Amino acid sequence: MCGIVGYVGKKDCVNVLLDGLSSLEYRGYDSAGILTMQKNNNNTYNLNICKTKGRVNDLKISAKQFGISGCIGIGHTRWATHGEPSDINSHPHMDSTSSIGVVHNGIIENYLELKDTLINKGYAFASQTDTEVIPNLIKDNYTGNTLDATITATALLKGSYAIAIVSKENPDEMIVTKKDSPLIIGKGDNEYFVASDIPALLKHTNKVYILEDGEFAKIKLNEITFFNSNKMKLDKKYKEINWSLEAAEKCGYPDFMLKEIFEQPTAVRKTINDNLKNNKFLSELKIDDKFVKSINKIYIVACGTAMHAGLSGKNLIERYLKIPVEVDIASEFRYRHPIINENTLMITLSQSGETADTLAALRLAKSENAKTLAITNSIGSTISREADHVFYTQAGPEIAVASTKAYNTQLATIYMLMISFAEILNIDVTKLKQEIETMANKIEIILNQSEYIETIAKTMFKEKDAFFLGRGYDYPVSLEGSLKLKEISYIHSEAYAAGELKHGPIALIETGTYVICTITDNELLNKSLSNIQEIITRGAKVILITNKKIDSKYYDYLIEIPDCPSEFSSMLSIIPMQLLAYYISKLKNLDVDKPRNLAKSVTVE
Ligand code: M6R
Q1: To the nearest 10°, the Cα dihedral for 51, 65, 19, 490?
Q2: How far is the CA of 85 from the centre of ligand 1 (A)?
Q3: 512: left (phi > 0), else alpha (psi -120 to 50), else beta?
Q4: What is the homologous superfamily of the domain 248-437 according to CATH?
C-alpha cells in the first residue's frame, strides 16, 4: 500500500528518491518522507530526515527548504494504516537514539506487544505507527553489524513487510528485506536503486533483482550481497524488464488514467498476440490436455476490478465448457472453507500480483492441492511466482489507481483461456476465435467518441447518485462501470442485474435519476427494454450503451458501440463507462489518478 525507495551510489540521492516516490505515489499518497546519510566534517554521520503530511510535491518543497543531501538514502510515500496521516506518523522512522532509519511497507501485526517490551527496556516512541518498532528492535539487537541485527529483529516480526534500513554505525551500506510485500533492487552502473515497484526504476535501469520472502540484501557502492535468514550467501541473478520508460510516463496526456484508457487497443493486441495460434497459449502456460479434461471445477478469485473481469469469464466458461465456475471475492474465499481438490483449477486475477487477499486465497488453494493459474500484469510479482502456472497480460505499467487497461487485458486472457480449453475438449468456438482478433480495432472506434461522451458527462457531473443496469454479459460490466464511477468521481453508484431492480432498488429511482443501461445481447433485448421502460416510467434519465438498433423512446443519451458477439461485449461496453467516469471526475476537479482513501496495490488484508 505504501511505496518505498532507496539509493546507494555516488550521486546526491535526494532527487533520485523524490523522483522515485513520484512514480510510486499511486501506492499511497497521504504523506511522504526521505532520509539521507550525511557525513559530518569530523567523519561522523547524521541521519537527516525530511517528512511531511501530504503529497510528494509537498515533500519536494520541504526538502528544498531543508537542504537535505547525501549519497545513501531511503524514501516513503504512505497510505496510512496505523496512525492518522501526520508529519510525525510519516516515514522514515528512527530508533530512539536516532542511529537507525527505516522505511516500511506492510503491517506489523504484533507491534503492540513488541512496543511494550521495548518501552520496558527504555526505548521511547514518537509516533502511533506499527513501523517504529522496527528500528528500535534492530537497535536492541545490534552488536556491531546491521545485517545481523536486522535478521534477528525481523525473526520477531509477525505480519508483512518490505523494509529498507540505514544505520549510522554502518554508514556505507543499506540493508533491505521483505516478507509478503514487494521489494526490488535495480542495478545501475556503480549504483543501486531500491523500490516497491518497477516504474520507480525505469528511468535508471531495466536490470532488476526481485527479492524473495526471507531474503536480505546488503547494498554498498559497487557491491550487492544477498543472504538468507541463516546468514548464508545467495547467488541471485537480475531479470531484464522490457517495459519502456514512456510506458510509465504521461506522454502528453493530462492524467495516467486517460492515457491508460487510450492504450487499451494496444494492450489488448499485445495480450492476444499470436497466443491462439497452434495452441501456443496452453503450451506456454505448460497446462496439458490431460489436466484440462480432468477439471471438474474452476474458481476465479480476485478483488475489485479483477473480480469483475472474473465474473464475465464465469458466464462464458460455463456456457461453452460446461464446467462449473465460482467467482469469489478473495477476502471472502480465504475464510469460507471452499471445496477444493486436485481436479480444481484456481485462477487468480491480479494486475499488481501483490494483492494480499488474492495471494492468501492462492496459498489456500495450493495447500489443498488445486492447480493454480495466475493471470497478472506484474512480472516477478509474488502471485506470479507462487502460482503453478502464470500468464502475463501485456497491459504495460498501469499507474492510475482506477484500473482500466488491466481489466480489458484480463478479459482478453480469460476469453483466450476458454477458447484454448474448448479446442482441447472438441467444442467448436471457431467464430469466437475469429472475433477476438477484431476487438482491439473495435475499442479504437469507441475511443473516437470520447468528446461526445464528455458532453454527456457535462450533464451528469453534479449528480449525487447513479445506477448501472445490465442483464447476462451486461451485468458484470455494469458492476465494473459502477466501481469506476464511484472510485474516481465520488458519486454514489450501484449496479444491478436489470431484472432485479423491481425487487427493491427501483424504490430509489426518481425524476432525473441517471441510469446507465447496457444492452448487447439479442436474447435478452426485449427483457432489458422492459426493464428500461420500468425506470423511464419512474422518471429516470437513461444513458444507453448498445450495439442494437433501439427506438429513441428508450433513452436520453445513446452511446453506440460496434457489433460483436455478446460474449465479448464487456470489452467494448466498458470503454464509454471508463470515459464517463473519467470526464465526470475531471469536471469535478478531482484527482483522477489518485482518488481519496485508495491505493493502487492493496498489500494489506
Ligand atoms: O492488483 P489487483 O488487480 O489485484 O487489484 C485489485 C483491486 O484492488 C483493484 O482492481 C481495485 O479495485 C481498483 N482500484 C479498481 O479500479
Answers
A1: 60
A2: 23
A3: left
A4: Glucose-6-phosphate isomerase like protein; domain 1 (3.40.50.10490)
C-alpha cell at 280: 501456443
Please report which residue ranges of 39-142 form alpha helices under DSSP H.
56-66, 111-120, 133-140
Active site residue 2: yes
**DSSP letters of 553-568?**
GG-SEEEE-----GGG
Nearest atom within ligand 1 for CA of residue 410: 3
Residue 189: predicted pLDDT? 93
Would you say 432 and 419 are in contact if contact means Cβ atoms under 8 Å apart?
Answer: yes
Of 253, 323, 252, 257, which Cα lies nearest the Cα of 293?
323
The whole-model pTM stands at: 0.86
- Band (61; pLDDT cuts 50, 70, 90): very high
Q: b/e per residue, 390-406, with b = 16+ CB within 10 A? A: bbbbbbbbbbbbbbbbb
Which residue is listed with cell 503450451?
283
Bigger pLDDT: 488 vs 199: 488
Q: Give the model's pLDDT for residue 29.
A: 85
Helix, strand, or coil (residue 507): helix
CA of 407 to the centre of ligand 1 (A): 9
Instruction: Say how far apart CA 77 and CA 236 lie, in whole Å.
Output: 28
Looking at the domain 3-241, which fold is it? Answer: Glutamine Phosphoribosylpyrophosphate, subunit 1, domain 1 (3.60.20)
